[in-house]
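Attaching the record inline, Q. Sequence:
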Amino acid sequence: MKKGKSPDYTAAMNPETAVVPKAQAGAPPAGGHRATERVREILSWYGSDNPGTRTSIARLLNHGTLAGTGKLVILPVDQGFEHGPARSFASNPAAYDPRFHFELAIEAGCNAYAAPLGFLEAGAGEFAGEIPLILKANNHDVLHDEKDPLSAVTGSVHEALRLGCCAIGFTIYPGSSNATKMYEQIQAIAEEAKKNGLAVVVWSYPRGSGISKAGETAIDVVAYAAHIAAQLGAHIIKVKLPTDHIEQDEARKAYEKNAIPIGTLAERVRHVVQGTFDGRRIVIFSGGAKKDNDEEILNEARAIRDGGGFGSIIGRNSFQRKKPEALKLLRNIIAIYSGTAR
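Structure, as predicted:
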């Protein structure tokens, strides 16, 4: 696969409005300008972190079409490990090649690209410096799909630094009987990552024998999972979009007594964000399984925006289609977050 024509990186985003000019779609801003007030505000939430880690967070916030806005669109491609190659890539065979994903993230104007060790190793040198990278440091396969999952640690802070990453990613499964082990694992790797100037991104996915299938996306459970990730020291938290189902009886009493609004998706997003230190942690939402209706995906992005969410981390709905279609979808999502599209 040949690399496509590099985007024009010459036009810097207006730091006063933090809104992307239409002519700039897909192109990261030129370097050398001061951080926007919004980025400075977000970085102030992480005052206990060293300058290296805060710089890594800033790299994510200051890259791509959304640079400076405080919003993020990240391309994650860990599905080959998690679900198998045919399920993940057969619908778009170009995606078997790791370089496809680097190119897609760069050309779409994403803030970052996240993947396991092997996929990053296959392109980190060729695309060095073109997009911030996140090493997914643990993974789970479905060859033995237990009710109480426990991911294997498959990457390290050392490998992330070697590959030039700005962050490590780590999945936890609140609700699994193995959750406490995962909490201890992320505590240790997050401590090492922060010591070495890396940001920490936590995938917090409720799953296990302790909760029902509907409970995996219940509003009380998703908000709880996001809060747990924040308490474990995550800088950026990835969760699924919540439904209005309430899983826990004791939680239902609190929701009803305090009349917590959860009727719309935007209200539920706002509640999840509120649960992460009153919005002082970056919360992004996953795209989930591939959807046939693009308008449904765009409506979810609108609800995330309207609810005060920080953006999307969208994999299968982008890379499981031909590149022109994937670029169109990602750029439409980015336009919603940038304010250039309703």
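The two ends are 35 Å apart (CA to CA). DSSP finds 14 helices and ten strands in the chain.

More tomorrow.
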